[in-house]
From TrEMBL:
Domain CYTH positions: 1-197
Molecular function in Gene Ontology: pyrophosphatase activity
PANTHER family in alphabetical order: CYTH DOMAIN-CONTAINING PROTEIN (PTHR34948:SF9), OS08G0299200 PROTEIN (PTHR34948)
Transmembrane domains' residue ranges: none
Protein name: CYTH domain-containing protein
Any Pfam family: CYTH
Highest taxon of the lineage: Eukaryota
Length: 204
């Protein structure tokens, strides 16, 4: 079970301000491209499962993941997640020919077939790009995201946590002390992608 604090930032100005504040704690920046798949009958989506290939740093390597049973409330996300590395050439080819996914020898693909009844008729749903700056701050690993969809850009700070309520308060304190506008994330990035529009901003 992956548990994360997820707080949405209002705009690029808030993102840049937080980036400047956290710059002394910067560890690395990752360039990610996320591509999603389902079968022709949407068996995964209809069961709240997400199958993803994530390419890192201009295709240096790729990770296959399966997320299931997601919940998100008050800025805290919980989801079951499995991850496995896959050969870059195989992953790249699978984007153009999704049926090749079914031929990957992995625990994830076996689970997709056995638990969700998916055959080899995969379809590519498309995806989005993300720039993730990683910081180590007060014992927390903070991930500051700039996510580019086909319909706009969103900004978010995430933190994987064993004590999410405590860590959420720490992060909220950082944002509030510096006048950075934020709100709790209500949707995963995949849900935003599938909706085709950015969530509205209602918090003043």
């Amino acid at each position: 079970m992956e548990v994360e604090v997820k707080l949405r930032l209002k705009d690029s100005t808030a993102h840049q301000k937080l980036s400047n504040i956290l710059s002394p704690y910067h560890k690395q920046t990752l360039f990610q491209e996320n591509i999603f798949f389902d079968d022709k009958d949407s068996k995964l989506s209809s069961n709240a499962a997400v199958l993803r290939l994530r390419f890192y740093n201009l295709n240096s390597h790729c990770i296959l993941s399966l997320k299931a049973k997601p919940t998100i409330s008050d800025g805290i996300s919980r989801v079951q997640e499995l991850e496995e590395p896959v050969p870059l050439a195989t992953a790249t080819e699978s984007v153009a020919k999704p049926q090749l996914l079914g031929q990957i020898d992995s625990k994830i693909m076996k689970m997709v077939k056995q638990e969700y009844g998916v055959g080899d008729e995969f379809v590519c749903l498309g995806g989005f790009k993300n720039v993730r700056a990683v910081y180590e701050w007060k014992g927390l690993k903070l991930e500051l995201d700039e996510t580019t969809y086909g319909f706009g850009t969103s900004y978010e700070i995430e933190c994987e946590s064993l004590e999410p309520e405590r860590d959420r308060k720490l992060i909220e304190g950082l944002l509030e002390e510096n006048g950075i506008e934020y709100d709790f994330s209500d949707f995963s990035k995949f849900a935003v992608f599938r909706s085709g529009k950015l969530p509205g901003w209602v918090k003043n």
